[in-house]
Amino acid sequence: GPDLSLWIRGDYVVSDATLNRFFAFHVIALPLVLLGLVTAHLIALHEVGSSNPDGVEIKENIGADGHPVDGIPSHPYYTTKDLFGVSVFLLIFSAVVFFAPEMGGFFLEYNNFLPANSMQTPPHIAPVWYFTPFYSVLRATTSDFLWVVMAAIVLYVVFIWLRSRLSFKAKVAITVIAVLIEIGMLPQVLEAKFWGVVLFGSSVLILAALPWLDHSPVKSIRYRPSWHKYVYVVFALAFLTLGYLGTQAPTPTYTLVAQVATLMYFAFFLLMPWWSTMGTFKPVPNRVTFHPH
Questions:
Q1: Is the pTM of this model over 0.85?
Q2: Do 190 and 227 reside in the same domain of the chain?
Q3: Of 253, 145, 129, which is closest to residue 198 (Cα–Cα)?
């Protein structure tokens, strides 16, 4: 309500107090939370070890000390590996800072060097480069594109009824939700802008659903069918395409390409319960294997 908005802004309008609060949250509070999560993660790795590249379940073989015998110890394996990774990162980071701080406008955007003018809006406003894939999803959601999304939802529900192993109640629940979404996507109900925000948020949140979407009988890609790698390549190309288009001014052609890439992006996740189980899988060893280089 108004009281909550006033408390968050610190003023009756967006002012310096608002900017200071969000800046402090962005550069102080949020990094501290992330630092705490990283610390908890490192403690867990040091205590029980990490999983292994073979995908062998580490909880099945417990040693006399109570630790998994197939877990990869945090030291010296991950400490040396992380030191090497940090060294490479610092080399690239130093090269960017000292020799190419703008990086072609991706790190320091050109709009940052334009004098402020309250009477003129920049012709193209884009977020920082690591948000551009999701920004492209937002911008690609037009009223015409929603009809394509509605057709895709219908096909997906039919596919669930024909190929899914979900219970009857789960299928009915998914169908009801799909019908409500279809009604909401009608032009007379909700605008495309609203669904653009929904798809924008969904494109980020769907990443958290990966553990439940991947139904592969094996964990490691070493023992999965080789054609799965091509699926990952197609997904990566769609993601990079969205990222590039998010940095460009919108055109009809770019919008069409972004819409196709958006469909490919969501199809990768929503169809994962099926394609991740397809193909011939190699047998997973009972214990971790080691091949010296």
A1: no
A2: yes
A3: 145
| Claim to verify: residue 20 and residue 97 sit in the same structural domain | no
Number of structural domains, the chain?
Answer: 3
Tokens standing for 122?
Answer: 């920049």
Both 215 and 231 in one domain: the answer is yes
Q: Is the pLDDT of residue 271 over 50?
A: yes
Q: In 114-248, which residue ranges form alpha helices assigned H by DSSP?
A: 132-140, 143-163, 168-184, 192-205, 210-213, 227-245
Residues composing the chain = 293
Residue 41's nearest CA partner among 69, 78, 66 is 78
Please, which pLDDT band fits residue 268 given cuts at 50, 70 and 90?
Answer: very high
Adjacent-strand bridge partners of 68: 62
pLDDT tens string 196-223? 888 988 998 998 888 888 888 888 888 8
**CA 28 from centroid of its chain's CA atoms:** 23
* pLDDT score recorded for residue 87: 95
Please, are residues 264 and 154 in contact by the beta-carbon 8 Å criterion?
A: no
DSSP string for 96-120 = HHHH-SSGGGTSS-GGGGSPP-TT-
CA angle 101, 103, 104 (to 5 degrees): 130
CB 35 within 8 A of CB 29: no
Claim to verify: residue 93 and residue 205 sit in the same structural domain: no
Domain that holds residue 73: 52-114
Per the DSSP assignment, residues forming a β-bridge with 62 are: 68
Q: Dump pLDDT digits (tens) for 84-112.
A: 999 999 999 898 888 888 777 667 777 77
